[in-house]
Design a protein that fits this description.
By secondary structure, the protein is of the alpha/beta class. The chain is built from 13 helices and 12 strands. It folds into 2 domains: 170 residues, 3-Layer(aba) Sandwich (Rossmann fold), CATH 3.40.50; 178 residues, Dehydroquinate synthase-like - alpha domain (Dehydroquinate synthase-like, alpha domain), CATH 1.20.1090.10. Strand 7 and strand 8 form a beta hairpin. Helix 6 crosses helix 8. The chain is globular and about 60 Å long. It is found in: Cytoplasm.
Length: 352
């Protein structure tokens, strides 16, 4: 059990096994609000929505809900608009509390709805996937996708609290447990060599190391977000593996899920960094081996040309420059600004 305090534009606590989801009402009551509105998806709602709603009601909240079809394909303007309409029909005000109950897609979309409804209301994140626990529920990035790329419409909007109950991870399908492990590996690769070493022995569901790993990942992200909340510098390092990873996701029609795509993107980016002398070949090999130990691929099933074209919509592109998170060694990273011609070479190096 641990609490990580995030002191961003809004200060809040990330509560890791301090409360169960059956105590969500107590956490919500500490935030306050005239009503609560739970956003969840069709996979998570049957498991946990009733329990969270009962807890909220027991703490005195009137409770509404919005449940959408699970999957990245729902993270779009249409679903987001339907969520806002449901919030308005429920009579929510600026003082109401949106509760994001689910994985990364739910957290991103519910957070964005909270950021924009009446120009902003409160949000409690309750992540139920490992990916959301170690990464997306913390830091205030909220967004939906466009056909042209991932997360192109969104806002920086910090939650009022994050409630992590690791017992919910027991219901994750094995694929999605592994999916979240990729983001944990990322934190080790860019910021903590000891964490990376720990993760070279794969995590498994029910692993005694889970709470420790989640706490460390959250603490690393806390430190980076506090230094650069709006992603103008150091926070870009959190995108290690994501420039190529998002391109892989897009080219697969999101059949390749986020963590699996990022895992490939990390191994490929590390390979290109080694070829450029930014890191040792042995470090790039360790990243590839770690990814493969979890059953993920160290390569992409698409050509360098397709990945390059898909990556041009990346948010880290600034005009004719692509800002790529690069690895200098296990636990050390830097930003590599590349003109588009050099970025094209980087992608070819990553794929070779």
């Amino acid at each position: 059990m641990s609490t990580v305090r995030v002191k961003a534009s809004t200060a809040y606590d990330v509560l890791i096994d301090e409360y169960s989801i059956d105590e969500a009402g107590a956490v919500a009551a500490s935030i306050g609000g005239d009503a609560a509105f739970v956003v969840s998806d069709s996979n998570v709602a049957p498991l946990y929505l009733g329990r969270v709603k009962r807890s909220l009601a027991a703490s005195g909240f009137s409770v509404g809900e919005f449940v959408f079809p699970a999957g990245e394909a729902s993270k779009n303007l249409s679903t987001y608009g339907s969520c806002l309409q449901a919030m308005a029909e429920a009579g929510l005000t600026r003082s109401s509390l949106v509760v994001a109950l689910g994985g990364g897609v739910t957290g991103d979309m519910a957070g964005f709805a909270a950021a924009t409804y009446m120009r902003g209301c409160r949000c409690l994140q309750i992540p139920t996937s490992l990916l959301a626990c170690v990464d997306s529920s913390v830091g205030g990035k909220t967004a939906v996708d466009l056909p042209q790329g991932k997360n192109l419409v969104g806002a920086f909007f910090q939650p009022s609290a994050v409630l992590i109950d690791t017992a919910t991870l027991a219901t994750l399908a094995p694929h999605f447990f592994t999916d979240g492990c990729a983001e944990a590996i990322k934190y080790g690769a860019i910021a903590d060599a000891d964490l990376f070493s720990l993760l070279e022995t794969p995590l498994v569901p029910g692993d005694a190391r889970l709470a420790r790993v989640i706490t460390r990942c959250v603490a690393i992200k806390r430190d980076i977000v506090q230094a650069d909340e709006r992603e103008r510098g150091a926070r870009m390092l959190l995108n290690f593996g994501h420039t190529l990873g998002h391109a892989i996701e897009r080219e697969s029609g999101f059949e390749i899920t986020h963590g699996f795509a990022v895992a490939s993107g990390m191994a490929m980016a590390a390979r290109a960094c080694a070829k450029r002398g930014l890191c040792e070949a042995a470090d790039a090999a360790r990243v590839a081996s770690a990814v493969e130990a979890y059953g993920m691929s160290a390569r992409a099933p698409f050509s360098a040309e397709r990945l390059y074209e898909a990556a041009l919509a990346d948010k880290k592109r600034a005009g004719g420059v692509m800002n790529v998170a690069a690895m200098e060694g296990i636990g050390r990273a830097c930003m590599l600004p590349l003109d588009l011609q050099d970025f094209s070479r980087f992608v070819r190096e990553a794929c070779s």
